[in-house]
Amino acid sequence: MLRRLRLTVLLSTAVISAAAATPAAADDDPVIGGACPGTSKFVTVCRQEPGSPGTSGKQDGSSDKDSGKGNGKPSPQTCAVERLDPQPPASDPVWGGHKPGDGAIYERVCFSDALGAAAGANVVPQVFWAAQAPAVNVDPEQLAREAVDKMLLTGPSIASPRAAGKYIVGVPLWMWVNQTPTTYGPNTASAGLAGVTVTATAKVSKIVWKLGDGESVACNGPGTPYEASFGKQESPTCGHTYTRTSASQSGGKYAVTATATWTVDWQVAGGGGQTGQFTEVRQSQMQVAIGEVQVVG
Q1: Domain extents in the chain
Q2: In this structure, are residues 94 and 105 in contact, taking their beta carbons and an 8 Å threshold?
Q3: How many CA atoms lie within 13 A of 219 on its CB side?
Q4: Which of 129-143, 155-169, 196-210 has the lowest mean pLDDT?
Q5: Residue 6: pLDDT over 60
Q6: Which of 134, 181, 223, 255 has the largest count of CB atoms under 10 Å?
């Protein structure tokens, strides 16, 4: 799993040089957790920024003030870490006085380093000794959001009003949407990391229609399809009545926007019932012409 994570970091951000890994500096040793705030779906590593503002603490002679960092404070870094296999021989200085079997040697590449490589610099993976494997910090909500990305959710599939439809001032307009997994739900997908699997289910809980005439209507369902037998009744679930034509609008039509709020419920599989909820928003747009009744004299 860690190898896959590291490759994800490297391949998605930069081409890593083939140079041999070098030991991490003493002030760059990873501290898992500690006083370092922040979490990530990979590993949260606290890296001590050397020196203080205005002093040179870097190999290139630049100061912390130049980089906007410093004060000797640890900062969170999102990194991919894996155990070296095979392990270096006992004579390798990377052990720093420790013995094989007394912990292990790990390799680390951080997002900040890989992003630098995207700008033209080479990234050399750093190696370090640790008494135990760095813990992978899994954020279940982040996994749920990754699951939502797989769903390819879109804005509402507007069935009515139709772009080519003929609608009249003063006559109730019925509004409804087609219900598919990607446009209305329910839609379910899962995502996993480091043995944690989260299943998310998304469904539209509300659609807000902006009708282009300054009015808006919030509908808590997909709306009711119109049938000719209903005559000039108002929609029982989602509708609007225009009071003026669209003749003065650009192109002679009102610009209509339907904004869907997707409610996403997620649950960790075998996670002691850990659950959560968040929302996603998707939009669809169309235009509708509203005319007047033509009276034949």
Answers
A1: 2-130, 140-291
A2: yes
A3: 25
A4: 129-143
A5: no
A6: 223
